[in-house]
Amino acid sequence: MTASSNALGDSLRAAVDARSRRALLRDLAPDADPVPQLLATGRSLRRSAPGEARVLATSALAIARLRRDTGARVEAMRLLGQLALLDGKPLTARRLLESACAVAEPAAGAAMAPELATCLSILGRDEDARMTLASARSRLSPRGFTKLRGFLELSEGNVLERLDRHEEALVSLDSARARFVLAKHRNVIPFVDLNRANILGFLGRYELADRLYRRVHRVHKETGSESAALQVAYNHAYLDYLRGRFHGALARFRDVRTRFEQSGDESHVALCDLDCAEINLRLNVPDAAAASARRAEATFDRLGMAQDAARARFFVAAAARRRSALAEARTALESARDDFRRLGCAAWEAVCLHRLAEMDKADGELPCAAARASEASKRLFELGLTERGGRAEVLVASVELELGDTMAAVTRLRHLEVRVGELFAPWLRCEAAHGLSRALDLANRPREAVRHALRAVALLERNRMSAPPDEYMAAFLRGKAAVFEDAIRLVLKLGGRRAYALAFELTEASKARALLDLLRARSTGESDVASKRSRESEALAGEIDGLTGRLPKGDGSARNVGLRRDDENLRRREDRLRACVERLRARNRGANAPHDEAIDLATISAALPADTTLIEYHLSERELITFVVTADALRVVRRDVRREDVVRMVARMRFHVDRSDLTADLLGADGARMQADAAGLVLAELSELLLVPVAAFLGTRRIVVVPHGELHGVPFQALSAGGHPLLEAHEVVLAPSASIFARATKRTGPVGVGALVLGVPDEEAPLIAEEVRLVASHHAGSRFFLGEAATRGELAKRGKRVRVIHVATHAVYRADDPMASAIQLGDGWLTTDQIYSLKLGADVVVLSGCGTGRASVTEG
After folding, report:
1. Could you tell me the pTM of the whole model?
2. 163 vs 157: CA distance, rounded Å
3. For position 85, what pLDDT does the model report?
């Protein structure tokens, strides 16, 4: 019997189509019963070869129906349901499993309850899933069924995890594991441990979760369970996201997504898209986030995964809002809110309400904004989402300010400070202090306003280290620029020399902080101990950010239970992070340390040689402030001007400068002259605004210019003060901040010798080879590499010991994702992110290629 059943199974798996398989089944002997063997083989193949397993299960179901064998029919439908679940088709799986449960014996129905509960949970029906499991338990006798009780507890743990009830979920999973050990059902233990690792990650116990993921992945690889190993890889990628390791998580998700796509698992492909959308929103890359979220939304809708589809719509709305597609954002957000309300996801519904209130305020619908924000605040506080509830309260206060009810805003924000108490909520405290400073300014209480404004800046600076030092930090600071801007404005209102010095320091604190922190974190010459401490600091910063930025996973009703635990986790990590940073500062103090703060006026003045003047600009909504700093003086020039007027002026200048070649081609010499005259006029306007007011202070040989915002697009060398371009009378240096200039003037390593010249010529740019040889001939002791020899490895190795690096090649600028911008070398593209990680010793690096001078300037 077994041999013939095996032969039938092999024949069915080898059959080319359904007709051939039906012919094989018609030829079965009347007394043959191959169903048990077909199902056993199908179960053994369900992860390694799901397509073949489906053929066997479908055949077994056909035979069972012909022979009216209810038990066999139940088992065949159960296997098909399991396969549909593994295939990412929860609606199909639910239909099959419910049909099987309807005709099964009580014990067999109870055995299928975990799988049915999984389907219901994936489809957003978590309470139905719990009822299914409770009903299954009630049908079991008090004794026995150890293994089945383990499966029920395993499924219960999974449902509780989806509802954010992580502590309860861990108890269920630990109990399930103990039952499987008792029943000697050890092959299930890796799946329990995978779920335990997921929950440990959400509880902030990252190292234990990481060890569990690695162990489970190793077990599945050793047993050849590729699909199970892939599931572990997906969850491990999510752990990277929880820890704030955004780029590592994105890379893992993209790799895992490709493998899920190859296996045909649609639901996990969509989950990868959803996670990538959320990460890209955190990284402020809205175009990529929108594309991923839309793909996920379409797949979830098709599969009937309602809660995940609603989350995808929420991210579509967030991305659209970042791209200023406000109509699209509102439509998607209202749709997501309706879905969350229907599904009973109270926390997500409240978050949507808050976001809608923000949009109402931006549209000038102030009463509606206040009502929605108040309702969101109430619900979020009730759910224990204190920081999110507090942010909704800050929004209500800002609406009250716009409506002229200043004292109501003051009272609300002071009450919020008391309500937050000792909870770890640095960004909420920062927003509340900033709101209070604005309200007290309007109440004509200037000194109180300054005190709260400086407190907001101090909170931002103190907790800035909690954002990982990459472009995410810049994206984070994008929303905090107003904190610095208002503090500068309020301090200058007080007047006096001390106020001017403090205003300069605040201006400097607002500039290039992401780049400065990145340079500090990756500076050359660190000892092994310092390098280890830097890595620990970065890891802790990521973990803090992962914990504070997490959105609710389920309905949010259990958030209060874990609130104290999360607060303790955050405080513990913040204390460790602060200790790491303090040790690094102490270790490197006095040696231009990468972790030593150096943004006060005295430090900047001391770093300026006697022949150098630094001009630093700050452009607010209605004022241009120019700070002129020398080794012995600070001067401040203020001029009323609207930012939007300056933006238009810079845009006109870029239009005329960038299109000069095109105009010459189209209109000839006369057109080129007209273009030059137009460019000259707008450069004269910019000179009148930016240089003429400070011309009397520009008596040194070198001028260091620190622009701000849109002014980064101005060619300061071409501006004139006194009728001649600045470059004719001065050496002009541009710097993103005074701190970075001061840091760059102090060399910490040996002086390099000679030049490294790399070039990648091709048909589009054949003169690159000539350029490389010409540049190399001008530097004694230079080395040059062309084509395939101009590799990333040569740059990394030889770039440490030379004084000049010159790279002539193609470049690609990505406005949608600046860190993906890259230059082409002989063995591939070198991205901005990879460039940041290089440890080069050169004084001068020249990038010669189209697009190498383009940039994105954002707050931070």
Report:
1. 0.69
2. 10
3. 80
